[in-house]
Design goal:
The complex is a heterodimer of chains A (330) and B (332). Chain A is α/β, with parallel strands linked by helices and 330 residues long. In chain A, 29% of the residues lie in helices and 25% in strands. In chain A, 44% of the residues are buried. In chain B, α1 (3-30) runs antiparallel to α14. The chains are: A alpha/beta (330), B mainly alpha (332).
């Protein structure tokens, strides 16, 4: 059902040229996001989740970056390849905020501390053509109310440091959805919050998705959150997707040794005392000039010499809609 | 707390600080051996007069020097507070000597401060947004040359160059004979003609620091998350730059008013002497050489007052500028 496609990422590479070599933060990524659905991207710190999000927004802060591949944003009338746009050009700026919006992990630092939240939320409207200040203010107050901020007509003039972490994240969500974007990228939106606040924010995002029909790309390292939020899941490791499928399939029947390792490392309720939580040995390597091989080879317990380190495994379909990049299934 | 209440509180603190300073100044002025009566006695003895012990004691009583030191201090302090700064050894009321010089000092300091920021802030922004470019290195180089060159030397060099190549005498704030004239456009232009040399000299010494501050803090702010947030909203880079990171990076610069202004007011003595500027510095210098204690004490006190005003000004501007500081102090 291609008409349901919203965003298609094809063979995306984002490299950083450093003095020490080429840092391949995103290394050949392909996935698709459908309308009204949530794609969860899960992986450890440093696996390239955030760089993927920033690549789609074209807001990579480093000047020494290189982007290759296609990022197709589908419209009824056709598709735009975001990867081909000038990142400082008007066309890209017009897409940001209006078509694709983003919420960030740290709601404290994501707002400027010396401007009111209202000022920063309304800016999204003004940047995209709103000229009526009264209308912008009305709209912002309504939206703050919608995301669950009490006394929004007063809170709109508060500075970020006057709001609690949860309130700030609600304001951030309000700022992101004020223009009814078709895709919302959420980069670890609940990581910095208390568990109770986390649950509230997740519920809020689900409700907004139901009401606005937007697609969500949900980036997190928290499998519990993914289980709660995502329809589809992409497991990322070292700039590559190693397993992709419907959330139910991935959780019920993980295939890739890395995904299995992740699942084993979730603490289980009622687990026997004294039993250590399983961990994946080693740490995520730095993808500096990585070899053309399975990225997980160096830490995999089922490593097969001569095969895993010979080439990057192709995607193997193990069930309808469920694919895994691992030689064990070839 | 309202803003006026905050200001009132600051002024009260400033008043207390000034009382402490005045006490210190008075004590230091008393330190040298002998007093004003000794000087008078010596002077008259030098002329051949014979002064008895009784006459000397009478003189002491007349000047109040026979009283305990804290009474003397109270008398001096109340007199000063009433604007009566005593008499210089030249026999002229101190206030008359000082009045014009206060105006010149304040004018020169404030203009130098504004000029410093007007030059340093744009260069700092350029250097941060074009880090490690040729321009960045160029301005860093120029800044450090300015910082490393002694002020008085630069003043001497400029004096020499202008005399040699343009036949101009650039000392002072006015051309000869102009100062006494009433204010007019011609006088103002003449002032401007003289003002820019000392300003160049003072500004070269202070811009380097401000450029470095601006560059470093802006680089820091440019890497902040809120910059990415604003970009993600689709804000144009240039607009974003000035609305968010520059605004925040200016914070320490605004803060520096509080210490640069007092330094400008009480410093610059040597430059003022070289350039023959009618500011407080040279007068204090000559008063100290002549052991003219009342004049010296009054100048020190005036400088302290101006410096404290500078600090308050810096604080008030900063609290108006940054809501975090404003709210923390409960000022709304």
């Amino acid at each position: 059902m291609t008409f349901d496609l919203l965003l298609e990422v094809k063979d995306l590479h984002t490299y950083f040229e450093l003095e020490e070599g080429t840092l391949k933060a995103v290394n050949g990524l392909s996935f698709a996001i459908k309308k009204n659905r949530t794609l969860g991207i899960v992986g450890e710190s440093g696996c390239g989740k955030s760089v993927t999000a920033q690549s789609i927004m074209r807001i990579i802060p480093r000047k020494n970056s290189r982007l290759r591949g296609q990022i197709l944003l589908h419209h009824d009338s056709g598709a735009v390849d975001i990867a081909q746009l000038d990142e400082d050009g008007d066309q890209m700026r017009d897409l940001r905020g209006r078509e694709i919006a983003m919420i960030f992990q740290e709601p404290m630092t994501a707002f400027s501390p010396v401007h009111t939240v209202g000022n920063q939320i309304m800016e999204a409207l003004f940047v995209h053509g709103e000229t009526d200040k009264r209308a912008a203010r009305e709209r912002t107050i309504t939206l703050l109310d919608e995301v669950g901020i009490p006394a929004p007509e007063r809170r709109i003039d508060d500075y970020p440091f006057q709001l609690s972490g949860g309130m700030r994240q609600r304001s951030m969500i309000a700022m992101a959805i004020i223009l009814n974007p078709r895709l919302l990228i959420a980069d670890e939106p609940t990581t910095a919050l208390d568990v109770t606040i986390q649950a509230q924010i997740l519920r809020l995002m689900k409700r907004l998705q139901r009401e606005n029909g937007m697609a969500i790309m949900f980036i997190t390292h928290d499998l519990g959150v993914i289980a709660n939020m995502a329809d589809d899941v992409a497991v990322m490791y070292l700039g590559k997707i190693v397993e992709y499928g419907a959330a139910r399939q991935i959780f019920k029947d993980p295939k890739h040794p890395y995904t299995k390792g992740l699942m084993r490392s979730i603490p289980k309720f009622g687990a026997t005392e004294g039993v250590h939580l399983a961990t994946i040995k080693g740490t995520v390597p730095v993808p500096l000039d990585p070899p053309d091989a399975c990225p997980f080879a160096s830490r995999c317990s089922e490593f097969i010499p001569g095969r895993c380190d010979a080439a990057m495994p192709e995607a193997v379909t193990v069930a309808p809609g469920h694919s895994v990049n691992c030689v064990l299934y070839e | 707390m309202s803003f006026s209440k905050y200001l009132l509180q600051r002024l009260l603190y400033a008043f207390l600080v000034l009382i402490a300073i005045s006490f210190l100044i008075f004590m230091i002025v008393q330190l040298p051996r002998g007093d004003a009566v000794d000087r008078i006695v010596n002077a008259r003895q030098a002329q051949g007069d014979i002064i008895t012990e009784e006459e000397e004691a009478a003189l002491r009583a007349q000047y109040g020097l026979d009283k305990p030191i804290y009474v003397q201090y109270l008398i001096w302090a109340t007199q000063f507070a009433r604007g009566n700064m005593g008499h210089s050894m030249l026999g002229i009321p101190v206030s008359k000597l000082i009045d014009e010089r206060i105006a010149a000092t304040v004018m020169l300091s404030v203009i130098s401060l504004i000029a410093t920021y007007a030059i340093a802030v744009p260069i700092g922004i350029y250097s941060a947004t074009n880090q490690y470019s040729l321009g960045d290195y160029f301005w860093t180089f120029v800044g450090f040359i300015g910082l490393a060159t002694p002020n008085f030397l630069l003043a001497l060099i400029l004096l020499f160059l202008f005399h040699k190549f343009f036949g101009l005498s650039i000392g002072g704030l006015y051309s000869p004979g102009v100062e006494e004239q009433p204010w007019s456009l011609a006088k103002a232009l003449d002032l401007l003609n003289h003002l820019w040399i000392p300003i160049i000299v003072i500004v070269t010494a202070h811009t380097a620091g401000t450029i470095r501050t601006m560059r470093a803090t802006l680089l820091d702010e440019l890497g902040q998350q809120y910059v990415i947030t604003a970009r993600a909203k689709g804000v144009r880079y240039r607009r974003l730059l000035f609305k968010y990171p520059v605004r925040l990076a200016l914070n320490p610069v605004v803060n520096s008013i509080g210490y640069i202004l007092p330094r400008l007011i009480s410093g610059q003595t040597i430059v003022a002497i070289v350039l023959n500027l009618p500011t407080l510095g040279p007068l204090l210098f000559s008063a100290l050489l002549a052991e003219d204690v009342e004049l010296a004490a009054s100048i020190l006190m005036i400088q302290s007052i101006l410096a404290v005003i500078g600090v308050i000004l810096g604080d008030v501007i900063l609290s108006l500028y940054d809501p975090r500081i404003r709210m923390e102090k409960g000022v709304t």
